Structures are given as C-alpha cells and as structure tokens.
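Query form — protein 6-phosphogluconate dehydrogenase

QUESTION: What is the three-dimensional structure of this chain?
INPUT:
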Amino acid sequence: MDRTFAVIGLGAMGLPVVRHLRAAGVPVVACDLDPAAVAAAADLRARVVASAVAAARGAEVVAVFVPTDDDVRAVCLGPRGALAAMAPGSVLLLCSSLRPDTCAEMAAAAPPGVDVLDAALTGGVRGAEAGQVNLLVGGDPAVLERIRPLLAPWTVAVHHLGPLGAGQIGKTANNLVHWAQISAITEALELARRAGVPVPLLRRALMDGPTDSRTLRELDQMRLTWHAKDLANTAALAERVDLPVPVADTARAVMRTIGVDDVARLLAGGPLHPLPSA
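ANSWER: The structure tokens for 6-phosphogluconate dehydrogenase are given below.
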C-alpha cells in the first residue's frame, strides 16, 4: 500500500484539502457527485474516480467530507461504499460533523485491520483554504501517529481528544461556542445601535478590549450555513448526558432569525432586521 490519500466529497472543505495535499506531492484520488468539483480536482492533478469504492481501493487514508450522517453511511457502507474496498492497514478518516453513534457504526462495519478515526474540522472554510485546519481527533492514538504526515499539509494543529467519537464531541462543543458567540455579538451590537452608538465604531473598540474574538473580527466573512445541524447535534448530545443547555437553546432560536444579509446590514451600521414597510 502506498501513501495515497483518498478524498470523498469535494466541497468547501474537501477540495482545499486536495489542493494542499497535491502541493505537498501526496498522491490523491478523489470523487464527488458534482462534475464541476471533480473537474476542479482533476485540474489539481488528483486522480478522479466515479465512486467511493473506487476512491478507497489502494488508499492508505480515506477521508470523508460529506455533509450529513446519512451521506456518510451512503459513501461508506454497502458494496459501493468505501469500506468495501479498504485493505488491512488503511484508515477511514471521518471529517464530517457527525454524531458519535455514527462513528461507532462505521467502526463496527469496518473490515478486520481497517481503522476508523473521527477527525472533526474546526477553522471553517477559510482555515481549509489556507491549510490551517484545526483537527479534533478521536480513536487509536497509534493510528493517528501513523498517518500524521498525511495530515500535516492541510492542518495547523491536530489534537487527540480520546476514543472514537471524542473528536465529534469536541466539535459539538466548538460549535456551541461558535453559534452562541454569533448570537451574543449580533444582539450586543444591535442593542448599542438602538441606543445610539454606531456599530462600526463599537466593533472596532471591542476588538481592542477583553471581548475581542475571531468571531467578532471575521463575522462579515461567515456563511452562517450549518447552525441548524450543529445545534441539533448539541441538543442530542445534551440529552444523552442529561444536561440542560439553555445557551444552546437560545442560540438555536436566535440563529433561525439571522442571515448573512442581516449581519452585513448590521455591521454597516443598519438594523439587524429589516425595518417594516411603511
């Protein structure tokens, strides 16, 4: 087995990973349902194939970057799934945001000798584009060390958090902080705007104080796309461990009312929500 890295899912996270791996000289095989994404991977000199099972054949690491738990099942399980072609010594790297139970399901389905790690990504699309992903990993630490050289081209840090599923638990905690910050920041800025303080001036001032954060600085660049899924995962984990999560509940309600256009308007000095028509 050579050190080929398979990427299944060539979206906003997967395609930049292909780019950084190819720039580092790592052989990459890639697949996606979107012909434009496949063409982009081919332009990066990745070998493109038509299915997950073909991508996994002969690869040392098979990394999955698809949106949902059901998508992970679709590309990993069954006769055309990646696990059907994976050989002993290879590693399935679950990079999607998943529930820990889904990670356990993939491990139970893995052939003998095939290891499974959950490797949740933080840092967002900009982190992926820059090769600065912060990776939260669960699973066998020896397996992680074995494949670490194949993670280096597209990560800034790799943290082993515990057994399989721990990376996803860490990502769920990360996501709760992220969406709660956005909810609090937008509410605070709107409060100040209504009380007469210009939002651009206040935001700049907050960046020089103890409440500064990457979220405050990069709010205008955020897509605000995955809050429903992320906070549903938070609720499911909270139910499992019997913990009330009122902050998560509030963030879930707030994020349903906020979009990219709302944030842009607020940061430019306008109201967070459109004013009612006269």
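ADDITIONAL NOTE: The chain has two domains: 5-163, 169-267.
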